[in-house]
């Protein structure tokens, strides 16, 4: 079970006037990638973690960043090594 990888995709909505600061703060977080963003303050973020609780903690952490209005989970997948099932 330790080899299971959780992949989660989020949409993060930020205040447009703090958008660059939010992006900079997100880039400081481990196991997080920014994929798309819009001038309206929306970002697509992908997280990787070995435990579901880590995903939930990261979402809470993102929601608490200055300038973030909301971080919403859009997709969650479990990846297990071939031949194993989570």
Automatic annotation (TrEMBL):
InterPro entries: Chaperone_NapD_NO3_reduct (IPR005623). GO terms for cellular component: cytoplasm. Interacts with the cytoplasmic NapA precursor. It comes from the Bacteria. This is Chaperone NapD. The keyword Ubl conjugation does not apply. Keywords: Chaperone, Cytoplasm. It comes from Pseudomonas vranovensis. It is found in: Cytoplasm. Coiled coil: none annotated.
